[in-house]
Structure formats: C-alpha cells, structure tokens
Amino acid sequence: DESSGILSPYTVLEYLPGGSLQDRLDARQGPLSPAEVLAWLPGVASALDFMHERATIHRDIKPGNILFDGPGHAFVADFGIAKALGGIDTGLTQTGATPGSPDYMAPEAAAGRAIGRGYDQYALAVVVYEALSARLPHVGDTPLATLFQKQTRPPHPLLAAAPDVPMAAAAAVMRALQRDPQKRFPSCSAFAEAFALGVRAAPPPKPARPAPSPEAAPRPSASAAAS
Known about the structure:
Order of helices and strands: HHHEEEEHHHHHHH
Strand order of the largest sheet: 1-4
C-alpha cells in the first residue's frame, strides 16, 4: 500500500493453461503410453533434482502437482510441505494425518525414518506407474492400510498391470519403487534416463496383418472343382 508506506509481501504464480497430469489421466480414463510419459518425465525429474541439490525435498509429488503450460512443458507445483533434506518425518501425526498423499508417500516416511532425495523419486515412480497402468502399485482400503502395505508387501509388478510397457522401462519403475531408498536410483534424472533407455530400446510393435478380403481368397482350380 503506497499511501500508508506499508509493504505487503505477495506471491506471483505463472499461468499454466495446460492443466495438470491428473486432468490428463481423468480425461483419458485409461493408461498413457510410455512415449506420452516420456514427454514429461525428464523435465519433472530435473526439477526435483534441482531442489535436492539445494537441500530441499518436495514431499507431495502426485499427478495433481504436475502442471503443463500451453506448449506442454511440465512444471512441479505446490511446495507447501517442502522440507529440508535429512529431517525426521514421523509420517503420521496423532490425528492420523499425513504430510503428503498416502498413495504416493515413500515407505520410509510412514516408518518415521530420515527422508532423503529418494523420497521424491519414489513418489515420482508411483506417478509413472499410475500413468502407465491406470492403477496404483499399492491399494489399501484406507490410507493407513496403504501405508501398511508399503511396509510389508512389494508393489504389484508393473508388467502384470501394464503388459505392453517395455520390460527395461518397467524394471526402471520397479527399481525406483524399492522399499530401501539405497536400492533406488542415485537421482530422479537417473531414473528418468533409465526409463527412457528402456522405451527407446524396445522393438517397434509389429503391424497387424489385415485379414484377406473374400475377393482375394484363392478360387479352387477346375480339376479340384470337378473332383
């Protein structure tokens, strides 16, 4: 307010007319292709690594927080619960609330262990898994049941949920979903690169052979017809 001489802080947000990844998944009502995922995954991974290099983790990566501009470039949004790296996250509060979305939370947060950059990588892998299969790797009846599954059960194999995903690309997603953060990739970009290599190395699908038309069917020879 210039008249009073008081300075009021404010935030300016870029207008992103392309909607969110959640909007795309809702509109599709089915899985995205690996090529469609590859169009936005490296950019999101790079943004997360940028944060991690500055000792910050996002903690709430999910389809609703991946936004697109008009040309389709991906942006990471909603830093409301971002946290300094290396902190202890109890995961559940006394009221049962969670810092983030239980479907995308990494197992170490629910266990009250120290969380690092692998936390965001796990959440990103859940997003990729969901985009490719239209389901989540762990599905519980309640948020607490989902978190318990992450502690006690391996994720449902991606190839079982989405058989058309190239094997090496699916293996990259499953590695990023490892319960032990040390067994995941060293960075989100490394995960994205492994996924990209798996997609690009896969042989192209064989074109379907058209069924022969009745006119093209061979006619019996005269001798065969006579017999």
